[in-house]
Design brief:
Elements (H helix, E strand, L loop, with lengths): L6 H7 L2 H29 L25 H7 L1 H29 L1 H15 L3 H12 L3 H28 L2 H8 L4 H37 L11 H8 L7 H29 L26 E12 L2 E12 L3 E5 L6 H8 L8 E3 L2 E4 L2 E2 L6 H10 E4 L3 H4 L6 H13 L3 H14 L5 H4 L9 H12 L6 E5 L7 H18 L2 E6 L2 H7 L2 E6 L2 E7 L10 H8 L40 H5 L5 E2 L5 E2 L15
Parallel strand pairs: 3-9, 3-10, 7-8, 8-9
Antiparallel strand pairs: 1-2, 1-4, 1-5, 5-6, 10-11, 11-13, 12-13
Helix pairs in contact: 1-11, 2-3, 2-4, 2-11, 4-5, 4-7, 4-9, 5-7, 6-7, 7-9, 8-9, 9-10, 9-11, 10-11, 13-15, 15-16, 16-18, 18-19
Length: 624
């Protein structure tokens, strides 16, 4: 997607920081274009009668040793300072792109050599590389431009390699390769458009650093030479007299800081719009291992939920969900898309972000009340005892980090392990979820794993602690039948071996019926029925549950007749009807259903159903 067409750019500019940074950067760029045209004559005018004057009404920042106005020289220097910084950034980005895409264009052997060279260059500090290349290319603006461009290129090459590797492993690239596209066309048409946005964000941020670096080289006498000047040159000329005429040094120094800040703030605002992290947060290593918080209350109940509601401005997609989960028990939640299944799990895991709000009459995990917010103790409890397996592990794993490192972060953050201990634990957990060659796989990136292996690694991440509950949100989506069976068998073995409770969320009612002990059926943000999984096909009482079961074909389904479907569309969370939400689609609905919402009532066997016409047979032919 083109950067200008991405709504994330526009959304970022609507924030106060983004709008302010964009305005400041626009002013700097406008000044860089207009100042040399408007004020070059005044900036270069020599007046020997006014040498080394201090600030005055006529000369706001004073004059230099030739009587030239420092204020206008700082304004005019905006052009070469910003222009050279942007050119150096362009050189670095272009060279980084060439090096980063070399493994894809040159093949495995030559690509490894380029990757090794990039890894060696990245190990050196950027300033050291800039000084080295400045000596190689010589003194002057051209040498400084090339020196800084070559110094920042390895970082962009590393970033490009990671982004290209992620996109190259996707199915549409494989399909294009099978269709006969060459490496260059594949890169230009399919890979580069998908990595343009993060590269643009990082280039914007790098431009601020390049500006500072160029000013530093000019200050040291390695950059712009007389009679030309930029902010670094002016700063070097004004620094010797800083105690007598501080404005001569402060003016170009402030200009460098303001312009660099404009680039950095704008880049950070855009990065937040894309949901990217521009820095690396290191978790503490070598801390004393911290034991998980003790369990309080009824030890037989892992999770107790009552009256759970999840709301966003103008909509409440989860309305009064309640259930319990015991140790070693498997409970499934089924329902159509939009019924509130995943939001329920996210709310329990404290993963609902603002402006979402979570309310509940009771929300306890291992006896701990989670309603008062997630503090340090609760984070520790959830981090060690609560595991979540998401639907798409490719979006859950950081594509720029190795699998083992990502798993190890969990142990470092929540269990206080050292880096070495955490990596050893990560390899052990990958081995526990039956990832072959676990030590080697731990050093690979997510794109090097198949879909099934990524799902196993995601389960392994949940097992980095000692989980009492695993929430699996559509864990077999987009996996073939064989891999689905392997993943489900793995979850079942973990559950039985460690007596772990399992909350399985799925739209596949057949899978839930085979894996789980109990089933919760959700519709329009409510639990409409709860019953044992063994009775799902024979004793379902709610018309919606029976419609879901009827919509699943089996070996006895008549292939000459159309497949059974549930008529109508799911209820809109922003406009639930006043009565039963399923009434517009239900063949049993009457005036009472349209007028009042039935409560969730338990029968004598512990099953629950919310329907005014439970157990009434659905008329034949009404479901399809």
């Amino acid at each position: 997607m083109a950067a200008r067409g991405n709504p994330a750019w526009r959304a970022a500019l609507r924030t106060p920081v983004g709008a302010g940074a964009a305005g400041l950067l626009g002013a700097v760029l406008l000044l860089a274009v207009l100042a040399p045209v408007l004020w070059s004559d005044r900036a270069n005018a020599i007046d020997t009668r006014r040498l080394l004057l201090g600030p005055s009404a006529e000369h706001w920042m004073g004059t230099d040793n030739l009587g030239r106005d420092i204020f206008f020289r700082v304004l005019v220097a905006t052009g070469p300072s910003v222009g050279l910084a942007l050119l150096a950034t362009a050189v670095g980005v272009l060279l980084g792109l060439l090096l980063g895409t070399a493994p894809m264009l040159l093949g495995t052997r030559l690509g490894r050599l380029v990757t090794a060279a990039v890894n060696i260059a990245v190990a050196f500090p950027g300033l050291l590389l800039a000084l080295f290349f400045a000596v190689v290319f010589g003194v002057g603006r051209t040498g400084a431009l090339l020196a800084i461009g070559f110094a920042i290129a390895p970082g962009f090459a590393r970033l490009t390699q990671t982004l290209v590797a992620r996109v190259e492993g996707m199915d549409f690239v494989a399909a294009a390769r099978i269709a006969g596209l060459g490496r260059f066309r594949l890169l230009v048409r399919h890979v580069l458009p998908n990595i343009a946005d993060p590269l643009a964000v990082n280039a914007t941020i790098a431009a601020g650093g390049t500006l500072l670096a160029f000013a530093g080289l000019s200050f040291l006498g390695l950059g712009v030479q007389q009679p030309d000047y930029d902010w670094g040159r002016l700063l070097g000329e004004g620094l010797p007299g800083i105690y007598l005429r501080p404005a001569a040094a402060l003016a170009p120094g402030v200009a460098v800081v303001v312009a660099g800040l404009a680039f950095n703030l704008f880049g950070e605002a855009i990065a937040k719009g894309f949901g990217q992290r521009t820095g690396t947060v290191r978790v503490g290593a070598g801390r004393r291992p911290v034991a998980p918080p003790p369990v309080v209350g009824d030890e037989s109940h892992v999770l107790v939920v009552d009256g759970l509601r999840v709301g966003f401005p103008g909509v409440t997609p989860v309305r009064g969900v309640g259930f319990t989960l015991r140790r070693g028990e498997a409970v499934g939640i089924v329902g159509e898309s939009g019924s509130g299944k995943s939001l329920t799990a996210l709310a329990i895991a404290a993963l609902i972000e603002e402006p979402g709000q979570v309310r509940a009459e009771r929300l306890e995990f291992l006896g701990r009340d989670l309603r008062g917010g997630v503090g340090r103790a609760h984070r520790q409890l959830l981090g060690t005892s609560f595991a979540v397996v998401f639907q798409d592990p490719m979006t859950s794993f950081n594509p720029t980090m190795r699998i083992g490192r990502q798993l190890a972060e969990v142990a470092e953050e929540h269990q206080g392990m050292s880096r070495r201990q955490a990596l050893a634990r990560a390899v052990d957990r990958l081995r526990a979820v039956r990832v072959p060659a676990a030590a080697r796989r731990a050093r690979q990136f997510p794109h090097e794993f198949s879909g099934g292996m990524r799902q196993r690694a995601m389960i392994g991440m949940g097992l980095m602690g000692t989980p009492a509950l695993i929430v699996a949100d559509e864990p077999t989506t987009a996996l073939d039948v064989t891999v689905q069976r392997q993943v489900l068998a793995l979850l079942a073995s973990i559950r039985s071996a460690d007596y772990v409770a399992l909350l399985l969320i799925s739209h596949d009612i057949t899978v839930v019926g085979k894996v789980c002990d109990r089933v919760l059926v959700m519709y329009a943000g409510r639990v409409v029925e709860e019953l044992p999984a063994a009775e799902l096909r024979t004793h379902a009482r709610h018309p919606y549950t029976r419609a879901l079961i009827a919509a699943v074909p089996d070996m006895t389904t008549d292939r000459d007749r159309p497949l059974a479907v549930i008529p109508g569309r799911p209820a809109d969370p922003a406009a639930f009807p006043p009565g039963c939400a399923f009434a517009p689609r239900c063949p049993l609905a009457d005036e009472r259903c349209a007028r009042s919402d039935p409560p969730l009532v338990a029968d004598g066997d512990g099953n629950r159903v919310a329907c005014w016409h439970a157990d009434v047979p659905v008329p034949t032919g009404e479901r399809s």
